[in-house]
Write a structure and sequence with these properties.
single chain, alpha/beta, 10-stranded mixed beta sheet, 8-stranded parallel β-barrel, 14 helices, globular, binds pyridoxal-5'-phosphate, pyridoxal phosphate, ornithine decarboxylase
């Protein structure tokens, strides 16, 4: 505990047998009598820990450098710092955030191929040496601003099947890579390796195989030119929840043989990755409150749609929207669906509903259509898997404040985290220990919950 500072990171211990869902229900019960029904998150830090252990089980040769951009909450950074992860930072501010938790500069990669010169200088002044590039201009900037930098050449991938494409903006082709290596040699800059990103929300693991094979080509080019490259960075793109077609282990089972083929263990190449979504998506659940409601009668809507059930459709207005947490709908192509906090009664009528955010903008629609029982102003809706690309890009447009985040962790998870912090990660032992941790965030909707008070201690660490 003492290696943490005690600001901005407090969480509630879960009593044995209680889950993050219980905390959420408890909070809802607490505020139900009051008018103060602001949207809020419950985030399970134990879920982040479980992801970390699962990572090493699936990708034992790959060190994760968490992509801070995905969710820059200090509690997340501190948790991953304690677990010994590295960090992918995109800017001076992210570097400052990570370094404020005591992470040494060697555990940071400045993984933005196009950087402002003053921010390159900031990295140099703070010991951060690893950084990516994909152009000659960037090479020249780095040569002047940070001659001791250890550069990683980012190559383009075929990310046409990813949910969010990145190679439209970044990444050198193989042909350009050779020119860049030659130029780096002239400028006397150290190129230590190759990075790529298959696109966020990867749907085809073969993209990794092609990118790893391309990286091998660039390593060989580098060797011909006299570089001693020793770092492969396989980027992000891994799923963060189970509601996806392609599961994490399905991807890693394709990556591992490709790594063994192109970068065998005895090659001495260090392999890192930059997972963002993977670590945080499933840890966060958002609770929003219905602040307004409109009933649209069938004749009013002018729709002949047979499925406009029961003669009316319903519009709900909730207190977080696309300018807040649900910016993931616009920027991350997310499709969200609510889980009702109240159990529906048997034989309850279902209505076609739309769900809208609180701002005055017509763009602020969260769900276009969802069939559910009728709800009232003051009722709650939950949205699971809301940790990735949500809070990090949320604005306060129209004056609506961002939801507060309530962090929780079970005692066994806290103990395992401390153990990993003190002794480092011990693959087999920690995998066994994590198997005994209670699940917290991945609950079934409508599950029976404990009415009793569940959270015993609140701790600042
Ligand atoms: C350079 C870089 N690394 C890592 C990530 C994280 O990707 P993901 O959240 O898909 O793991 C991103 C996301 O945009 C990125 O741009």
């Amino acid at each position: 505990m003492n290696s943490f500072s005690n600001e901005e990171f407090d969480f509630t211990f879960l009593d044995e047998g209680f889950t993050a869902k219980d905390v959420l229900d408890q909070k809802i019960n607490e505020v139900s009598a009051s008018d103060d029904k602001d949207a809020f998150y419950v985030a399970d830090l134990g879920d982040v820990l479980r992801k970390h252990v699962r990572w090493y089980k699936a990708l034992p040769r790959v060190t994760p450098f968490y992509a801070v951009k995905c969710n820059d909450s200090k509690a997340i950074v501190k948790t991953l710092a304690a677990l010994g992860a590295g960090f992918d930072c995109a800017s001076k501010t992210e570097i400052q955030l990570v370094q404020s938790t005591g992470v040494p500069p060697e555990r940071i990669i400045y993984a933005n191929p196009c950087k402002q010169v003053s921010q390159i200088k900031h990295a140099a002044n703070n010991g951060v040496q690893m950084m990516t590039f994909d152009s000659e201009v960037e090479l020249m900037k780095v040569a002047r601003a940070h001659p001791k930098a250890k550069l990683v050449l980012r190559i383009a991938t075929d990310d046409s099947k990813a949910v969010c494409r990145l190679s439209v903006k970044f990444g050198a082709t193989l042909k350009t890579s050779r020119l860049l290596l030659e130029r780096a040699k002239e400028l006397d800059i150290d190129i230590i390796g190759v990075s790529f990103h298959v696109g966020s929300g990867c749907t085809d693991p073969e993209t990794f195989v092609q990118a790893i094979s391309d990286a091998r080509c660039v390593f060989d080019m580098g060797a011909e030119l006299g570089f001693h490259m020793h770092l492969l960075d396989i980027g992000g793109g891994f799923p963060g929840s189970e509601d996806v077609k392609l599961k994490f282990e399905e991807i890693t089972s394709v990556i591992n043989p490709a790594l063994d083929k192109y970068f065998p263990s005895d090659s001495g190449i260090r392999i890192i990755a930059e997972p963002g979504r993977y670590y945080v998506a499933s840890a966060f659940t958002l609770a929003v409150n219905i602040i307004a409601k409109k009933v649209v009668l069938k004749e009013q809507s002018g729709s002949d749609d047979e499925e406009d059930t029961n003669g009316k459709t319903l519009m709900y207005y909730v207190n977080d929207g696309v300018y807040g947490s649900f910016n993931c709908i616009l920027y991350d192509h997310a499709h969200v669906k609510p889980v009702l906090q109240k159990r529906s009664k048997p034989d309850e009528r279902y209505y076609s509903c739309s769900i809208w955010g609180p701002t005055c903008d017509g763009l602020d629609r969260i769900v276009e259509r969802f069939d559910m029982p009728e709800l009232q102003v003051g009722d709650w809706m939950l949205f699971e898997n809301m940790g990735a690309y949500t809070v990090a890009a949320a604005s306060t447009f129209n004056g609506f404040q961002r939801p507060t985040i309530n962090y929780v962790m079970s005692r066994p998870a806290w103990q395992l985290m401390q153990q990993i912090e003190e002794q480092g990660f011990r693959a087999e032992a920690d995998e066994q220990d994590v198997g005994t941790l209670p699940l917290s965030c991945a609950w079934e909707s409508g599950i029976e919950h404990h009415p009793a008070t569940c959270a015993s201690t609140s701790i600042n660490v």
